[in-house]
TrEMBL record:
Residues 128-175 are annotated as: Disordered. The keyword Nucleotidyltransferase does not apply. Pfam families: CorA-like (PF26616). Keywords: Kinase, Serine/threonine-protein kinase, Transferase. It comes from Fusarium austroafricanum. This is Serine/threonine protein kinase. Transmembrane segments: none annotated. It comes from the Eukaryota. Residues 158-167 have a biased composition (Basic and acidic residues).
C-alpha cells in the first residue's frame, strides 16, 4: 500500500472481505411464512496508524444497517468517544464483525421449527395409517407330503417277488408306477369342475368377501388420505432443508476463516503495541463469540439432518401405503 497523506491513508492497513448467508422470513398475503436465503457481502479495511476503518456491505434490505444503528446507540464500544484512538477503533471493528456473524444464526431456530410443524401433520398420518389387506388363501398350501415312510399310496403296486428279483442299491423297496397321477392320494385329487372353480376364484376374487378384502369405500378413504400433494410437500421440504444445511456449513467455514485471519493478525510481530495492550480482552471475546455462534450452527445442522431422515422415512412410508391401494383399485 502507498502512503497518501492527503487521503489520510498511512499505507499500513489490514483488508478482509467475506460473504455470509442467513435465512429471513417473508410474510405472504395469506398469512403464511416463506423462508428465503439472503446474502451479505462485506469489505473492510483498517488503518493501523490513523485508526480509520472503511466498511462496505452489500445486502438486499436494511437488516444489517438497522442492526448497526441499534448497536451504535446501545454498545459503548461503538460510541464516538471511544473511536478517537487506534485501539478503540480496532475494538469497534471487532464488534461490527460480530454483528454480521451473529446475524447468520438469528432466525434458524424459528425456521427449522416452522418446517418441522409443516411436516409433522403428514408424518403423523403416515405413521398412524393402517391398511389391513389380506391376500387370498392358498388352498394348496396345506397339502401333505407325497411320500411317507412305511406307507404306500393307492395305485402303487409292490410285490414280494419283484422286490426279491430287483432290489435297489440303496436297500429301499422298488415301486412300479402305472400313472403319474397315482402319486396323488385320493383325498387330494380334484375333479375337473373343482379345478375350473378354483381357477376362476383365483383369477377373479370376490369383492364382497369382507373377511378377505377391505371394504371398497373404506379403501378409497384411506387412499384419499395419502395424496400425492402431500408426497410432493415432503419432497419440497427435503430439498429446502438440504439447501439450508449447505448454507449453514458454508457460514461455519467463513466464520472459521475470519477467526483464523484475526488470530494471525494478532500474532503478527508488526501489530502495534497499543492494540495488543488495550484490546487483548476484546480479542478473546471476539473469538469466543464466534465459536459460540459456530456451535449454535452445528446444533441447527444436527436438527436439519434428523429432520431430513424423518422426511425420507415418511416419503417411503407414504409410497408404501399408497401404491398397493392404487394397484388394488386398478385391478
Amino acid at each position: 500500500m502507498l502512503s497518501i497523506p492527503k487521503l489520510g491513508r498511512s499505507g499500513q492497513e489490514h483488508h478482509v472481505q467475506y460473504l455470509l448467508r442467513s435465512v429471513e422470513p417473508d410474510i405472504m398475503p395469506n398469512g403464511s411464512t416463506r423462508w428465503n436465503i439472503r446474502q451479505m457481502a462485506t469489505y473492510h479495511s483498517f488503518d493501523f496508524v490513523t485508526g480509520k476503518a472503511v466498511w462496505i456491505s452489500i445486502k438486499a434490505n436494511d437488516v444489517i444497517s438497522d442492526r448497526v444503528k441499534e448497536a451504535a446507540s446501545q454498545l459503548p464500544a461503538l460510541d464516538p468517544e471511544f473511536l478517537s484512538n487506534c485501539s478503540g477503533s480496532f475494538s469497534a471493528t471487532l464488534v461490527t464483525h460480530l454483528l454480521n456473524i451473529e446475524w447468520c444464526d438469528e432466525n434458524w431456530r424459528q425456521c427449522i421449527n416452522d418446517i418441522e410443524s409443516r411436516a409433522r401433520g403428514i408424518l403423523v398420518k403416515a405413521q398412524s395409517g393402517r391398511i389391513d389387506q389380506q391376500s387370498p388363501p392358498n388352498i394348496l398350501s396345506s397339502k401333505p407330503p407325497l411320500t411317507c415312510q412305511g406307507e404306500s399310496f393307492p395305485g402303487t403296486h409292490s410285490t414280494k417277488e419283484s422286490d426279491e428279483k430287483s432290489p435297489s442299491r440303496s436297500g429301499f423297496r422298488k415301486t412300479v408306477l402305472h400313472s403319474p397321477s397315482q402319486l396323488i392320494p385320493k383325498q387330494l385329487r380334484f375333479k375337473k369342475a373343482d379345478v375350473v372353480r378354483v381357477s376362476s376364484r383365483l383369477l377373479h376374487p370376490s369383492r364382497h368377501d369382507d373377511n378377505t378384502y377391505p371394504d371398497r369405500e373404506q379403501s378409497l378413504k384411506i387412499l384419499d388420505s395419502f395424496s400425492f400433494e402431500e408426497l410432493q410437500q415432503l419432497h419440497f421440504l427435503s430439498e429446502l432443508l438440504e439447501s439450508f444445511q449447505l448454507v449453514m456449513e458454508l457460514d461455519y467455514q467463513t466464520m472459521s476463516d475470519i477467526s483464523e485471519c484475526y488470530l494471525d493478525l494478532w500474532n503478527h510481530e508488526d501489530l502495534p503495541k497499543e492494540i495488543k495492550g488495550n484490546c487483548a480482552n476484546k480479542m478473546k471475546e471476539f473469538r469466543r463469540r464466534i465459536e459460540r455462534t459456530q456451535k449454535n450452527l452445528l446444533i441447527r445442522i444436527a436438527q436439519v439432518k434428523a429432520l431430513l431422515t424423518a422426511l425420507g422415512n415418511g416419503k417411503e412410508l407414504v409410497i408404501i401405503l399408497t401404491l398397493p391401494l392404487i394397484s388394488w383399485h386398478l385391478r
